[in-house]
Every structure is written in C-alpha cells, then in structure tokens.
Structures
1.
Amino acid sequence: MQNISENKLPEQLSMSAVQLKVGDIELMGDYYRNALGLEVLAEDAAGTLLGRGGTALVNLRNARGLQLPARGEAGLFHTALLFGTRADLAATVYAAARHDKSRFVGSSDHLVSEAFYFTDPEGNGIELYWDRPRETWNWNGGQVAMDTIYLDPNSYLDNHLSEESFTNLRSAGAGIGHVHLQVGDLATARRFYVDTLGFDATATLGDTALFVSAGGYHHHLAMNVWNSRGAGPRRDTLGLGEVLINVPSTDEVGKIAERLDHAKLENHHTGAELRFRDPWNNALRVAVG
C-alpha cells in the first residue's frame, strides 16, 4: 500500500510570480510599479516581470487583441501579495489607494491575516495582506479558523503607516502568499487540487469556497463559485495566464507528474518543471525554486 505522505505536496511548497495576460502593457506596467511599488526585474518584447527586492511577483504578458473575461467565467479571483510587517502592508495599501486607476474593494480581518482588496485597471483582483503569527492560528481537526470581519482601512493606516515605510516602499520585501481562483464547482476542485495534486483542504465555506495548502499554511490556493458556479473551461482571454508553484526538488516535480499520469490527466514534464491545466483550463506550472 502506498504511503499516504507520498500523495501530499511538500511542506516547503511556495507560490511564485503570477502571469497575467494584459491588453495594455504600458498602463498595467505603470499600475503595478506605482500603485503597488513593484520594480521591473526583466523586460522584453513579450512583456514585463515585476517584483520586490529581486523576488518576482507579477509577470505581465502582452496579449493585445484578447477580450476581457466575463464576470462569471472561470479564472482569476485575485493574486495575493504577502508582506512581512504591518507597516509594509500599510505603505502599499496607501500607495494603491492613491493611484487614480486603482479600485478599492474592501478590507477584512480573517483571524489568520489582515487583508485589503483592490482591482487593477483590467479587472484583475489583488489582495494585499499580512499574516498573524502562526502560533495564533486556531486549528481544529485539520481545519483552520478563518472569518471575514470588517477592518477599518483609515484606522489601520493611522496605526501602522509611517513615513519610513512609505519612503522605503520599493525596498520592502513581499511574496505571493496565495492565489484565489474562480471555478465551476467545488467537488471537482477538491478532486483535482486535493485528491490528485496532494494539497490539504484547510477550510471550506459551505459549498461556495475551498481553501487548500501544503505544510500547514492557511492557504496557498483557494477556489470559489461566488460569481462562476457552473462555469466550464475558460476561453483564451485577458486575465490569468499561469499560476507558478515552486517545490524544493525535481523529485517532487516528478511525484506530481506521476499523480497526474495516474489520474490520466494531460501534462508536460521536462524534469525540471511540469505544465498542466486544471478542469477549467487554468494553466499551472510546477518548478524547482
């Protein structure tokens, strides 16, 4: 009998730069540089890679001519940028709120984190957040307690924004904490992301949202049907281009490829990386990193 741990993703798993297909590369580049304080890490005719402190966060790919996705299509719900301190988070929230192309969506205390939500000029969701210390998270039977409690943005900025953090906005570190997707149904999402790929299911919101992770994080990926219940495979549109997941070794890449093969799911495995798609045609890549 196969050891159940062999079917789990490694605890060192992390999320990496999210690729976005964009219609206006200049507008979107300006937004991510000036609203979110990202810097250009690489640039060519195909697009721009942006990040913080050398860490890649957003990969903008020029896709002029593609249409925007409909609200109810599968695809990206938001990309979540994780900050190391409340001051760093507050500085980026302040910069995003001041940008004339930014749309503030809301803010919440999720018990495990404090989060602020925006939408970029082409409708891609963005979460900016800070994690509370892991020892304060409340787990019960493998499920982590999360909630959505109103978080006053003005009070937050009053308490945590400093002149120093805003001045040093671009030098403060950040990472991709998680990626949240719109899908057609949660049962299919659970079969693919938990049963096949090997994530742990860490929380559910009835039949509307599923949160999954590796290594005891609250979530590396989430899927919801709030706008997209019943959605089928997505079209080639603007928006999400690719979700990148990093694992610590080529052995781990190979194990995921074997699980996809066992499930008879199409994938392309080069040894160093693995490319495949979820049931809604969202592109995923697993690589050593």
2.
Amino acid sequence: MAKKDVAVGIDIGGTNTVFGFVDRSGTILGEDTFKTSQYDEIEVFVAALYEKILVTSQKIGNSINVVGFGIGAPMGNINKGTIEHAAGLPWKGIVPVADIFKRHTDLPVIVTNDANAAAVGEMIYGGAKEMKNFVVITLGTGLGSGFVIDGKLVYGHDGFAGEIGHTAIRPGPSNRDCGCGRKGCLETYVSATGLKRSLLKIMADSNAPSELRKYSFDELDAKIIHDAAVRGDYIAIRAFKHTGQMLGFKLADVVAHTNPEAIFLFGGLALAKDLIFEPAKEYMEENLLSIYKDKVKLLASELSTQNAAVLGASSLIWSIKES
C-alpha cells in the first residue's frame, strides 16, 4: 500500500506551539502541542519540537510520507526563513529558525508569519475559498493579520506587510506598553492579554461587584473572563465590549486600505462570538466611509474547530511542490 504524502504544519505561538500532519485535502492525520515558553534557547526548542514530531509520526504509523515542514510564527519572514524581533516569543532579535530546523532534516522548511499562514488556510480550506479579497485577524496572546488582495497573499517589500497588531490605536507616552517596545499598539487592547488589561482597568475604576475580583492578573485568562461574561458579570461584559470596540475602530481603517469582501476573526478570543463580534461590527460600521458601509462581512473562521495556522503553514509545502 502506497504511503500518503503529508506536510507538517507548525504554528509557533507565544504560549503554545501546535503541529499537525496534513494531507493534500486538508485532513489533519495527527497533531500535538507543547509550551513554547518553556524554551529560552531556540536550538533547544527546535530539537524538542523535532523530537516530538518524530514521536507523533510513529504513533500515526508507516502510512505517511512527510514531504516538508511549513512554519507559521509571529514576525516570520518567508524571504529569509527567520523570525525577527517577535515581541511575544522567548527568543529576541533575528532568529534563523529555518536554518536551525534544517540541521535535523533534508526536507524543505518554509517559515512565514503565523497570521499569513492562517489566511492561506482560510483561502484553501475555509470560508474564503471563493474569495479574492479578504483579511484574517488572529486573536490570541497577541494580534496578527493576513491580507489577501486579488487572490494573492500580501508580503510586502521584505516580508512584513500587514502587521496591524503593531499599529497605534492610542499613540502617546501615557498609553499601554507593548512587547515590541512601543506604546498604544492595537494588540495591547485587542488580544487575550489586552482583554485582561482592560478588565483590570475597568475593575479598578468601578465599584461594581464582579466574581473576577478574586483573581490576580496571572490567574486570569480569556476563558475565565468569557465564562463570567456569559453568566452576566458586568465587568467582564464591559471588558469584552471595550475590546470589540477597539477592534472595530481599527477594522474601519483596514477596510479603507484594502476594500475586502470579508474579514475573518480566528483564534481563542474569537470563540467569544457575539461578545466580541457585535461591538466590533457596530464600531466598524460606525467609523466606515459611506462608500464601504454594509458591504464588508465580519465572519468567524470556518476553521475554528481545527488549527488554521497549521493548515496554512502546511499548504506552503504543497505550493512549492506544485510550482
């Protein structure tokens, strides 16, 4: 029996790294995850990742043939195979992740921005299959974005186009510090971490009762805040509304720049559904130029039950095999 060709898609996140063995149809035949933050040295991280990939492949059995590795990561540069100055990762500066990975394999290794990988996954396997112009916003530990215009992913001059998470929503010295070294970046307000920061600010400025007052910052996470909001917690609901408003305000700019058919929200924070979608849609429409109003769909990723970044990263390998 012939072995099935698979590409390994790898999504390196600020908290977790996820990988999966993906066939040409987008079926994930096996996957696993582990903590990114446990590894202070990139060489140790890559060695541990590769070992875990081997272990997982053995569990799948002898029915697969790995043809390459696609990697999505914050500030990933497809031109150089590097991760460059990623604020949310343990490794600083310019990290030659593709070259380090190639110490373990002779197969192709391609690196790109994690949000770009998610956009590719949405285009090939998800809700953007028939679309030529759309945007994917990834809402996790930070905020990423991938832009597809006229059917092509936008990389820009040196591979870093579309970093709206690090555009200023509130510029000025008194605004929130961002891991990138600047202040007032969108992801300091619109991300799982930004949600927590907003919640604690709202809580400090209000006397309203909240079940969340018993938690420290480190104990809180987006799911705890979401569950409290679903139960009607006033502070949690306000935190989600504020986060959605900030996102919607910035999406109005995105529409003006790219005129997309749709904007897809992907990631843990997007799973809050109406808590984030309703204020985001309202504020986007409120701030749009009239020629754009009621034309742009704000949609949940159709890959929300899978890992869009893993699928998108794996598809990079299929693209080079078919070129």
3.
Amino acid sequence: MRISKVLIATILALTMVLVGALGVSAQSGTWVSGIMIQNQSETEIAHITVTFWWAEGTANAGQMAHQFNDEIAAGKSKSYYVPTSAMTAGLPADFVGSAVVSSDQPVAANLNTQLPSDLGGDPANPMRMGTASGVLEPAPKLYFTQVMKNYWGWNSYIAVQNTGADTANVTVRYFSDATGAQVTTESGAIHPYSTKIFRQSEVGALPNDWAGSAVVEAADNKPLAGVANFFADGTPYADAMFQSYNAASAGATKLYVPRLVKGYYGYQGGLKIQNVGTAPTNVTISYRFGANTYTQTISNLGANQAVGLYMGTPSHVPPLAGVSGSGSAVIESSGQPIIATVNEDERTSGLGVTYNAIPDGAQTNAVLFPQITAKYYGFSGGLQVQNVGGSATTVTAVFSMQGRTDVVATASVPSMGSASWFAPNIVAPDFNGSVVVSAPQPLVGIGNGSYRYDWDNRYGVKYGDSFTTYNGINK
C-alpha cells in the first residue's frame, strides 16, 4: 500500500529533468537527465512512483507528462537514464520539466543534467554535466549564492519547482555581491509540481558582466525547491564547465565544508560566502589541511553581501601561503546567518563542480550517497566525509549495488578532519551503486565522479566537463 504524499520523508522533488532543447550557452542543443534513486530502508523494498510535470513556458505547462512505478531493493539504488530507460519510454522527446518521486519507504536521489553521454570524443563537442540532490524539505524562501550574466563569458539559470498542489506566485530578487543592495526583481506563476526557469541572461535590468546572488520567495508560504546551474560558453572544450548546486533554504552561524582543495593535482577550490541576515557580521574560516589548521577572518560582511575566495589567488587566502592539498573547513559567523557554496575546478581541461556548505544542525551519524561509480562506462568517483563531532571516530562506508555483495571500508578520522574513498580502490569495475557512511560521531559529506580515462580506457578519450559533485544526504 502506498504512503500518502503528505509524508515528506518519502517524497522527493527533482527540480529539473529534461530530454529536449535547453539553450544555456553557445553549445546549445539537446540536454538530457539521469536520475539515481536510493532506498534508505535496510529491510524493506521501496515501491516508488515517479511523476513528470511539464515546465512553465512549454505548450503543456503544468500538465503531467509521464508516470512510472518501480521497486528498489532494500538498501540499494536504481539508475534511470531518461533518454534510454524503459521506465521513461513514454516521456515525450522534447520534455523539459520536473519530477516528483513518492515511495512507501524513505528514499534519496540525485539528478544529473548533461549533454548526451555519447558526446565528448570530439573536442568540438565536449561533455557537459552537473549534479544536484533531490529535495526532501521544500521551503517558501530559497537562496542562490552564485548567479551571473555574461560574467567573463559565464551565465546562469535557476530552476524553481512548486512542490505544492496549488499555483505558486514567486518573486526573484537579485543582489549585488559588493554592496548587498538589491539590483532588480522578476516574478512568475508556477503550476503545481511544475518548474519555471529564470535565465539571468534574459533579465534586461541586470547589467552586462554581472555576478551576484538571488533570493526566490513564494507568496503565501508555498513550498519551493530550486537548483542553479552556471556555465562557461562551451567553446573551446576548456570552457565547458557546467556547475550545479541546490538552493539553500536557510542560513546558519556555522557551516561545514567536507572538501576544499588548493593546488591539488591542478585543481583549485573556491568559496562563495553570503550574509543572509539583516545586519553586518564577521566571518571566520578554519581551514584544515592534514593535521594543521589555518584561520582567516572576513570583517563586516554586510546584509545580503557576499565574498568570493579563490584558493588559486594568494591574496584571497593569505593564511594558506605555501599550503596545498585536499582538506576541509569550518565557516563561522559572529551573529548573522550565512550560506556558502564550494567550487572546485581544473581550468586547463575545463572541469568544474559546486556544492553547498552544510549548515550546523544538519549533521547526523549516517550520510547517504545515491550514486557512486567505479569504472562504469569510463566514470569513476568517490566520497569525502567530515567528522564534525568533538572527538576522533571510526567511520564505516558500505558500498552497495543490486546484484552484488556489499563492500565495507573503514577509516579513523579526527575531530573536524575528513576521510575520502575513491571507489575503484574499493569495489570491482562496472559499479554503479550507492554508499551509506556511518559513525558514532556526527558526519557531513559529499559525493563526486568524473570520466576517468586514466582509470578506465575502454571507452576512449573524452573532452569537456564530466566532473560532478553533490551533497550527501544526512539520515
């Protein structure tokens, strides 16, 4: 018997699912999606229903486009590549919209937005891909730290989903990074369960070469979910970066960053920190690389103001002079709520990702990762978890895939330190599954992946941005 949709723990909003044309850059064309759904129950089969809804601006806006039912074994996950999955065969070829996943067991999911997977062999047609998490807890107000209009060749769009049963009227407010002042607004109505895409390149009141932030708010407290994508122009392939992140629904005075890199095999990290409070605040960042901690303070960050720190620019991060590697961080505010996104890129090859810093209070003793791969059609990935408890702990990761025996890995992690696992070192090839990480101390974490010819050369060299990262789901 199916559980009613009022039980939010068993409902997921997938804010952008597409198999049609989505003009996001000089390299437009047909964009597609992949969905990975993980059954959180360790004992019960999950009976799921996935319902697709046409986006605003299409001829069928607000109407249901397709629905399918399926089962997922206890503790396992299933993948649905929208263009080829038998379950999505009834979805129109030009579909652009959203989806809602309902289940009789708690589920988690992630969503890939990408160009078709057969691209990338030609530098003129590079891969482009970004990943966001399914939304379990919609909110009437959403924060987006990074939006832009022709900013050094970069643009963005935000996809806002109405997760309720009534039409939602929403307003988007754009803010200046430098001053926190509101620049302009736009608004729109969104049908139940549908999505509206706000493209910053089409907002005439935004100046050219602009980067800032946005806040989306629904009238009458209607529940929303949101995803942002920002992207370079796509030509040449070194400019193929396509980066996705989930909207934040609230700020906190402490944020956790499970992974931050500086000069790490050609990769550089970045932080975009925004004050979403009503008064100025001081921000302290504690970076941890290896056994060492380095501290940086940003004074008097104004309301709605944001600051960007690029690890590859020494003047942005003076305390990290001479430091390189992969680490973690804790960001604290002296009083006002803040939010942050974390970037990582390798600009020679055009690889880039973004994820959300995790607010204090979200940490739990278990973190779910719906999709981790190892030599799967050339894709390999891993995960990084941060121990945000007060003492060292042993962290256990269980790698699961339908039809295979679970594989267990462990690590000892100091307080505020992090541990990483690269899946090809843990599981056999052709793994496309999920991971559950647990510990006696509270954890946060992220999952990632990319096309790795150096680990799996069966499918040839690929060009462009195959690098994806998403927030783990705290259980």
